[in-house]
Amino acid sequence: MKKKGTKVSKADVAIGKIRKLYAIEKRIEKLPQEEKTRQRQQLAQPVLDDLKAWLEKKAFCNPRCKTLAFPKQIIVLCQRFQG
């Protein structure tokens, strides 16, 4: 836990957003497959949209920023967002 007044890193922000997705998966793990799919679309899509917007804002998904060093997982995630 961060101390009050401590700056939150980009990694902390990204991890927080990804944890929301894991929490959704935990919540729906025992549901039938069709219901899982419906719940993912309803609950996870807004989280994914927020994550994508944040990544784009921070230039992680900007193709012009290929010279920056980012973890492979972030690069793969951005590629999936781009199609």
Would you write up a description of this structure?
There is one protein chain. The chain is an all-alpha fold and 83 residues long. The chain contains three helices and no strands.
Task: Summarize the SSE layout with pairings.
Elements: H1 10-28, H2 33-57, H3 72-81
What is the total tally of β strands?
0
Query: What string gives the helices and strands in order?
Result: HHH
Low-confidence stretches: none
How many H/I helices? 3
Shape: globular
Mean pLDDT: 79
Amino-to-carboxy terminus distance: 36 Å
SS class: mainly alpha
Sheet of most strands? none
Percent strand equals under 5%
Summed up, what is this model?
This protein is an all-alpha fold.
Defining traits:
about 80 residues; mainly alpha; about 0% strand
